Amino acid sequence: MELRVAIYLKLILEHLIEHQMNRYQILGESYEDGPCTITSNKNSDSNLLSLDGLDNEVKVDGLPNNFRAHPLQLDPSSDSSNSIDGPDHVKSTSLHETKKANAGIIHGACLTLTDHDRIRQFIQEFTFRGLLPHIEKTIRQLNDQLISRKGLSRSLFSATKKWFSGSKVPEKSVNELKNTSGLLYPPEAPELQIRKMADLCFLVQHYDLAYSCYHTAKKDFLNDQAMLYAAGALEMAAVSAFLQPGAPRPYPAHYMDTAIQTYRDICKNMVLAERCVLLSAEILKSQGKYSEAAALLIRLTSEDSDLRSALLLEQAAHCFINMKSPMVRKYAFHMILAGHRFSKAGQKKHALRCYCQAMQVYKGKGWSLAEDHINFTIGRQSYTLRQLDNAVSAFRHILINESKQSAAQQGAFLREYLYVYKNVSQLSPDGPLPQLPLPYINSSATRVFFGHDRRPADGEKQAATHVSLDQEYDSESSQQWRELEEQVVSVVNRGVLPSNFHPTQYCLNSYSDNSRFPLAVVEEPITVEVAFRNPLKVPLLLTDLSLLWKFQPKYVSGKDNEEVKELVKGEPEMIGTEVISEFLINSEESKVARLKLFPHHIGELHILGVVYNLGTIQGSVAVDGIGALPGCHTGKHSLSMSVRGRQDLEIQGPRLNNTKEEKTSIKYGPDRRLDPIITEEMPLLEVFFIHFPTGLLCGEIRKAYVEFVNVSKCPLTGLKVVSKRPEFFTFGGNTAVLTPLSPSASENCSAYKTVVTDSTSVCTALVSSASSVDFGIGIGSQPEVISVPLPDTVLLPGASVQLPMWLRGPDEEGVHEINFLFYYESVKKQPKIRHRILRHTAVICTSRSLNVRATVCRSNSLEDEEGRGGNMLVFVDVENTNTSEAGVKEFHIVQVSSSSRHWKLQKSVNLSENKDAKLASREKGKFCFKATQCKEEEVVTEVSEKYTFADIIFGNEQIVSSASPCADFFYRSLSSELKKPQAQSSVHTGKQSVEDVTKLIQKCNEVDLNIVVLWKAYVVEDSKQLILEGQHHVVLRTIGKEAFSYPQKQEPPEMELLKFFRPENTTVSSRPSAEQLSNLIKTSLHYPESFNHPFHQKSLCLVPVTLLLSNCSKADVDVIVDLRHKTTSPEALEIHGSFTWLGQTQYKLQLKSQEIHSLQLKACFVHTGVYNLGTPRVFAKLSDQVTVFETSQQSSMPALIIINNV
Questions:
Q1: In this model, does residue 226 exceed pLDDT 50?
Q2: Which H or E run contains 379?
Q3: Which Pfam families match (predicted)?
Q4: Which of 117, 78, 128 is nearest to 99 (CA)?
Q5: Of 708, 685, 691, 710, the residue nearest 457 (C-alpha)
Q6: What distances in angstroms separate CA 141 from CA 13, 14, 18, 147, one per listed residue?
Q7: Nearest to residue 1004, comparing CAs of 914, 1103, 919, 1072?
């Protein structure tokens, strides 16, 4: 048995050695059809083996010897995709059946361990006793034969060649060698014997001897022009030189290059050339010569075989990435080329793999066009391989990146994406809606509005502006509205702001406080503004666009039932959803969509996102891509293809930065603008302004009407309005007597309450009184908060009421924005929403009218008609600053009124014959009035709010200044003063403190007098003459200081040098100033204006003069009267004249509070002339003070006397 096995193995070995060369040529042309199928175009091995009587299926080294089933071939069953997709793949039925039959056979299953040991021992003994000695013997025999045979044949051959052709054999070109590529040697040829010996040496790893033999055979083959044999010898010689231990000679790369060129160009055998290239590339890579290997691989690529070129390009790409300095971009580029060739060869999986590997390099590097191409190819290949998720992901990346492709290319990408997405959605039609990548949604810019849209203006009716999505967010304005709401809420809660108060927010955006759940009212719409952006150059058409929401209703029983609805069909019961049928976004356009929800039940609402159909318009690619498409605004578009999907609204809250942990980490708070809580019904107020002006003169009074409508099903109460400009408007007094009738019932359609007077009352003032409490303004009150006088204080559902509103133009010219905030409550108290508000912003443009200046000074006359002291003179300057741009012809000053607690205007001093004072443009008028203190019964205490009004009229009609609207605007102009509680004066008679005395002295210079100038202006507008009315206020607080009706511009303070030292005394002295102390005493000289004296009879003229001293303060004052002339120069004598005072020259007095004292003096004159008697000097000081101050009263007005001689 062992002898027979040895014979069989010997025969097999001999045949292997003899046909080593042929085995390199066995590879068939079908290799190009696929990488897995290799067949043979020659059956030399099977023929040789059959001659020995062996079966064709005899296995060598455990592998089948028939090349119909190559040992490296993949199982067709495991690669079904290649077998299906390969267009050039040839199916072999017998091969498939053979592998299927062999797949169920297990070889060697019956061998025992002893059999394994015997086989191992047999192979070892066979190798050392049989195989190696046999090879050694064969090599020796071949060597001997070659020496004898080759010497004789070569000498004869060379002699013959020299005889016939000379000593030098000319070389042949490549074209001439083509006809020798098919030369065949007989088996006993010496050249093949050398090749056989070289192969044996190569098998036993005797590479040095093998290289010599291959080199010798190569020369012989070249001499015989056997190029196929020569290329094989060159190839093996190069391999032998590379495998020699110790590397005695360098690797002959040019051998491989010559072999490759021979295989490719002469022999036309690309399979052998490919094998040689792969072998040479591996050798170069092992030596680290990746650049040469890559160049060698790329050189063999051609157009005749896509599969071979793809394989070589892929290997070249790996050479680039394995260099010492990797060439990453060359790697990616050649991987893309390889993927392209794989795709042409039908190898879809290999193509997809190459493109995916190249994508790792190009991703995120800014090569957008390359990324688009790769993603597009990956998407198509994945779709071909039925990897739909990968295809969708690849096409999605094309669309979400900022693509630089043309409009046509982007349109193609979008259509491919929609087509793939539609196939994916058809696989699972009942599954969840997929996330769509287009258009972009800026979630942080999402705005939510609670409430109805603003009604447009209807004729003269103008609706309140309130809050809308059309208004831009302004942080300063938002803070003003918040302060107004806080102010009115604190007034309603008796001056205390509730701890759980939160400002009402009707519009939520990225700037608002979204940390709490917003409150919405049932049956009131919720509008969500979603910001879309189309990044493509082709228009996008969204159809059936609506919101996606989840609602959790709450019932009275307390049971919660969560209801999730994604698509609303039919009439909804809980939440109504508005659907936009078509929403077009043009190329590269940002556009907002406003989607509405209508809650019909209380509960918790969660807005999840938007759902829509994404599609393109037919023929949209042909459009420029920038302008709108024809017919875009018609609402009718033809969709080429669309898919149903959704996009979620995920809003990131603000970053937290309060605690130390939040500052050191990145944490974000919640944003709950899309999670409103639906509450019970609340009243809803709408406000309309009728005949509301847009332009006024400064100080002009205009009457308008306000209509309040309750459009809800709940009654409202507690209506109030708050504004930072309470002096701009009024609803009239609290009593019906104070409020005039409507303009239609009034004479001359005046906004004022007027009374016809007779001509005898124009010289003196008409006195009336009113309390500021009747006009909603008192000590400690909030004049900015005004209660709206509703009938019965309740507005029923569906009811409306019209109320008059008087407006006064601001004193500054320009454009004014005046904010009104209406506050109201529900009759039925709600736990979550306690009140509601309505905002309105009025824009008024004012133009110049009149400027009023006024001063007050003490009168020299100490007594009035009633014998009482304390008179003052009021000078009023009125200037017409209007430049007729508003069509104003002239202004008429119709009345000047005063309002004060202690003073009143008594009469006009310079009343001319023309009772109606007219002022044309740029004209100025001056008025002088006498003011007296009120009577004892009219004088009120400091804490009282009663004011005395005195009207001096310049016409036949008196405007009742103590009634609305004149008194309203007067009190509101004083609102800042009236808010401060007045300090009560101390009434005890004991010794007063320094602070009290100082206050008393300061009050001597203070006066509480307010001047109101009422006027009319005649305007020509549209050939019609209109009469405008208005009033200006001047507040007089200090004697001798000029006051203005318009605000003065404050000049910036001058720069001062910095002081780098601490002052010694930082306390502020509470003592009054010298100017204040100088006005403690009021002086008056009573004397005859002309005195006749006979100087020829008596040379001295004595004139009696009375000096009246009045203490203007409520403190005791020490007075020193010095009658000596203060003459230090001759000029002073000329001014005062030559007269002298007779008698006592100095008096010391003490005046009690408000005391008047008279001194009888005598003046002596020596000749006639005009003399100034105002020479007495008066000094005053407080009784408990040391410093003495000189009064300045006597120098204010000269006291002239005329001395005549008779």
A1: yes
A2: helix 368-384
A3: Ig_TPPC8_1st, Ig_TPPC8_2nd, Ig_TPPC8_3rd, Ig_TPPC8_C, TRAPPC-Trs85
A4: 78
A5: 691
A6: 16, 14, 14, 10
A7: 1072
Exposure on the CB side of residue 277, measured as CA atoms within 13 A: 28
Write phi, then psi, for 185 (nearest 5 degrees).
-100, 145
Burial category of 67 from C-beta neighbours within 10 Å (exposed 0-12, middle 13-18, buried 19 and up): buried
Q: Alpha helix locations (H) across 573-658?
A: none
| 148-163: burial string, b at 16+ Cβ within 10 Å, e else | eebeeeeeeeeeeeee
Q: Is the peptide bond before 252 cis (omega within 30 degrees of 0)?
A: no
| Long-range contacts (CB closer than 8 Å, 24 or more residues apart) made by 311-320 | 311/35, 311/338, 312/274, 312/277, 313/337, 313/338, 313/341, 314/338, 314/354, 315/278, 315/281, 319/281, 319/285, 319/290, 319/291, 319/293, 319/294, 320/290, 320/294
CA dist 783 and 972 (Å) reads 7
Q: Hey, what's the torsion of the CAs at 1087, 1090, 1091, 1096, to 10 degrees?
A: 150
Q: State yes or no: pLDDT of 1055 exceeds 70.
A: no
As to burial, measured by CB atoms within 10 angstroms (0-12 exposed, 13-18 middle, 19+ buried), residue 748 is exposed
**Those residues with Cβ within 8 angstroms of residue 351's Cβ, 6 or more apart along the chain or in another chain:** 310, 339, 340, 342, 343, 377, 381
Helix, strand, coil share of the chain (percent; to 5): 30, 30, 40
Per-residue confidence (pLDDT) for residue 743, from 0 to 100: 41
Surface-to-core class of residue 556, CB atoms within 10 Å of its CB (0-12 exposed, 13-18 middle, 19+ buried): exposed
Neighbouring CB atoms inside 10 A of 183's CB total 13
Tokens of 125: 């003994």
Residue closest to 1034 by CA, chosen among 905, 928, 876: 876
Alpha-carbon distance of 79 to 591, in angstroms, equals: 50
CA distance 1139 to 1166: 7
pLDDT digits (tens, 9 = 90+) for 521-571: 998 999 999 999 988 888 889 999 999 998 888 875 544 444 444 433 334
Q: What are phi and psi of 155, to 5 degrees?
A: -70, -40
Instruction: Go through the chain and tell me how many residues it has.
Output: 1206
Residue 86: alpha-carbon gap to chain centroid: 54
User: Are 1190 and 1177 a contacting pair, CB within 8 Å?
Assistant: yes
pLDDT bucket at 40, cuts 50 / 70 / 90: very low
Q: Is 986 exposed, middle or buried (0-12, 13-18, 19+ CB in 10 A)?
A: middle
Residue 550 phi, psi (nearest 5): -135, 135
pLDDT band at 777 (very low <50, low <70, confident <90, very high): low
180-204 tens-digit pLDDT: 455 788 888 888 889 999 999 999 9
List the Cα angle 225/227/230 in 5-degree steps.
100
| Crossing angle of helices 270-286 and 227-243, rounded to 10° | 20
Distance separating alpha carbons of residues 210 and 200, to the nearest angstrom: 8
Contact 765, 950 (CB under 8 A): yes
Predicted pLDDT at 273: 92
Q: What is the pTM of this model?
A: 0.70
The percent of residues in the chain predicted with pLDDT above 90, rounded, is: 24
970 φ/ψ angles, rounded to the nearest 5 degrees: -65, -50
Query: Which helix (H) or strand (E) element contains residue 1043?
Result: strand 1043-1044
By DSSP bridging, strand 1200-1205 and strand 1090-1093 are parallel
CA distances 215 to 155, 311, 489, Å, are 20, 31, 109
CA distances from residue 990 to 591, 986, 987, 1071, 1113 in whole angstroms, order as listed? 80, 10, 9, 20, 16
Of 530, 533, 529, 531, the C-alpha closest to 589 is 533
**Separation between Cα atoms, residue 965 and residue 804, nearest integer Å:** 11
Token pair, residue 624, equals 């420029």
Give the Cβ contact number of residue 603 at 10 Å.
20
Say which residue, 1188 or 1096, is predicted with more confidence.
Answer: 1096
